[in-house]
Specification:
This protein is an alpha/beta fold. Helices cover 39% and strands 19% of the residues. The protein has a single domain, classed as Rossmann fold. The chain has a seven-stranded mixed β-sheet, with helices on both faces. Helix 3 links the parallel strand 1 and strand 2. It starts with 10 loop residues before the first helix and ends with a strand.
Length: 241
């Protein structure tokens, strides 16, 4: 695993307190494939998505995987809050025992932290019994800003660049679309135009709370009905051939 693969500085951790946003992500991923049984979460950060996954009615357990020492410390002190069916696995995916099995893999805001991300996506996809990974990554390189740079992001994706990476691993994309149109404007203004570095506690910032408590509940049902040409993120269902 790459040395800078520390999600405590990444988007998945910065949004861990945004409950409505995280539920929207899970709801969207669930439209691609039923999330059930034993779930492997690759790059769990500080557990925002983990908690949402563990509470799904058809999920038996969540294997939350991350190699960051800071994340390991967080999980140790917050295990009861994340759910009794969550198991934290603090080792590189290529070191995980081949005897460990799961049904579906999920990774959100993680692949951009890895220099050569393709083999990691291939590994978690092929090892799932359904040969399926549900993926969320940041979209559009023109949105690459201070948080991306300081968070150790190597890239943001378009449908074309993501497809190329997936196909180079012998995988296929079943479905793919952009996600979170309104998030584009706040992200571009704060982290590209203004170059803000004030993101240590973004999930508690007024603008983030407004987005989570007001914009997401009212806007997300509308986006679920539309095909948008632009979004802060890219969502995909990836299958092993």
């Amino acid at each position: 695993m790459e040395d800078n693969f520390n999600l405590v500085h990444g988007s998945s951790s910065l949004t861990s307190g945004l409950s409505n946003y995280n539920k929207w992500i899970i709801r969207k991923l669930s439209e691609y494939s039923v999330i059930r049984g034993r779930v492997f979460e690759f790059g769990c950060g500080t557990g925002g998505i983990t908690k949402a996954l563990s509470s799904l009615p058809e999920v038996e357990s969540v294997i939350a995987n991350d190699t960051s020492a800071s994340v390991a410390a967080f999980f140790k002190s917050n295990s009861s809050r994340l759910g009794s069916n969550v198991e934290f696995l603090p080792i590189d995916i290529f070191e995980v025992s081949k005897d460990l099995r799961w049904d579906i893999s999920i990774t959100t805001n993680t692949l951009e932290h890895i220099h050569d991300e393709g083999p990691y996506l291939a590994e978690i996809t092929k090892r799932a019994s359904t040969k399926t990974s549900l993926v969320l990554v940041p979209a559009f390189q023109f949105l690459y800003g201070t948080l991306d740079k300081d968070g150790g992001h190597f890239r943001r994706y378009t449908k074309k660049t993501f497809s190329t990476m997936v196909e180079n691993q012998g995988l296929r994309i079943e479905k793919m679309e952009y996600f979170n149109f309104p998030g584009v404007f706040g992200w571009w203004f704060n982290y590209v135009f203004m170059g803000s570095t004030n993101y240590v506690s973004n999930s508690h910032h007024f603008s983030y709370r407004l987005f989570d408590k007001v914009i997401v509940p009212f806007y997300s049902p509308l986006e679920d009905l539309l095909s948008i040409p632009l979004g802060l993120s890219l969502i995909a269902q990836v299958k092993a051939r």
